[in-house]
Amino acid sequence: MRFAADKTDIVSAIATLKSSIANFLEPDFGLLDHLRRLHVLSPRQIADVRSERTVFRRNDALLELLTSQDQCDKFLLSLQETGQQHVVNFITQNGGPSNNDVIMIFC
């Protein structure tokens, strides 16, 4: 399952946007459990992520473990299924629309 219609490498997008994603990703309310069910992360990896003290560090630890396209595709699916479509949109749009996509209207 590929999410990026323009063939953007999701692994690279996640790596590039990691520090921004870590600011609004929510790992604690179903996402980690969903990733375990899809065999994206092992129980030990999940425990390591959960052991981090702050949500930002948990997010950093989680994002560091996503190294393959398959993992990243399943990560995006898990985000959708846990109500985090805004994170999927941010990743698949490489951080949002570019300045070229913005239309300014002057009154």
What's the CATH architecture name? Orthogonal Bundle
Helical content class: 55-70%
Largest sheet: none
Write down the overall geometry: globular
Characterization of this structure:
- The chain is mainly alpha-helical.
- 58% of the residues lie in helices and 0% in strands.
- The protein contains 6 helices and no strands.
- The chain has helices at 10-24, 31-37, 43-50, 55-65, 69-81, 85-92.
- The model is unreliable at 98-107 (pLDDT under 50).
Short description:
With 107 residues, this protein is mainly α.
Name the descriptors:
107 residues; mainly alpha; Death Domain, Fas; 6 helices
List the helices and strands and how they pair.
Layout: H1 10-24, H2 31-37, H3 43-50, H4 55-65, H5 69-81, H6 85-92
